[in-house]
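Below is a complete specimen:
___
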Amino acid sequence: MLYGLFNDINPLPQGEPGARRKTKEAVVITRYTLPRMAAIWEPQSKFDHWLQIEILAAEALAEMGEVPAEAVARIKEKASYDLARIDEIEKVTRHDVVAFLSAVAERVGEDSRYIHLGLTSSDLLDTTLALQLRDAGQIILEDLDRLLSALKAKAHQYRDTAMIGRTHGIHAEATTFGLKMASWFAEMGRNRERMRQAREDISYGKLSGAVGTFANLSPRVEEYVCRRLGLKPDPVSTQVISRDRHAQYLSVLALTASSLERFATEIRHLQRTEVLEAEEPFAKGQKGSSAMPHKRNPVTAEQICGLARVLRGNAAASLENVPLWHERDISHSSVERIVMPDSTLLIDYMLVKFADLVEGMLVYPERMKKNLGLTRGLIYSEQVLLKLARSCSSREEAYRLVQRNAMRSWESGEDFLGLLLADAEVRERLSEEEIRECFDLAGHLRNVKAIFSRLGL
């Protein structure tokens, strides 16, 4: 459950949607939140969907001649509800849909007998959940678009800004900061496509009645309602829509969060004092530590890393919801009342925060240049190896010669280029010019433009 997580984005005045509410869905938000996403999960939003579905079903039945048209007109005029009254009734019925229907019936009167004809509770619940996840997915796609735009801009800005590439955390060979951003851009592009597909696959409703056989309701009603809602009818449902759709959706959110964690972990390393090649923005008046005034900590990146764990856990819970008993049980229901709102709120928050981070990120090309030289030229060892291998009897011999000088440079602190130039065995095979050519940074990075072209950047 979310208690006060979103305390630094879009403050809302007390009493507005999203303000310090507590619902039976176990979503608890402070008055500081992301209002568009929060509004999707408000109780009123849910009940509004329920009422809309019931009215549309009655309309469909009227068109089929099974319900008096004048009764549907009166229902549309009178149908409404009071949140407090629903809660009051539910304390007795212990059934949320029955409580809702009773509260509506009190306002509609005698014509309420034409409401919920042939429907079961899951017809409301699952169709509404599809609408909520569809709408949440649209916000998430917009968040992804903003982040992709920020990453694209940074990739172009730093395309040719050389920095050290690291494997196992150890200096490997040169890359560019723009290429790192391009990698993030490509990965988030894949996540966007996954989200688009997941949103499409979740946009299915059902009004097929108990155990999904349409025993007391024509499939034409389902088709009518779903069409009016912008959903597709689930081709075959039991009493519920199969939970593989929902598990896919939450798995995409978890995968997106894991990508964000990968990027945030990189920033956390780059911001380390002894590295300091880039850091997240530090606002005026911001404090890094209660005890140490000098601290500038990667708090946003660390927060994203932590929240990714929650989303992966929620995805695991959604996978556990897939194997329900027979045509349905309700073991999934209590889980979804938590993981669906929380997961969409979390990924919305994480994407907004990371886009803020990328847009305001501080990058230090001079520090990158300095760090490139920390190993005194060892980062060009592969270039020397490849050139030397052409004139040695075997690659193993060339590797021996290069590694011998590389290890001496590691241990003594001597310059790698100078050691190679002074090595008689190396000089027997390579001229000074050939050796120096191996230490050409621009040549090493000559294909970065081609990579950008492949990405369409």
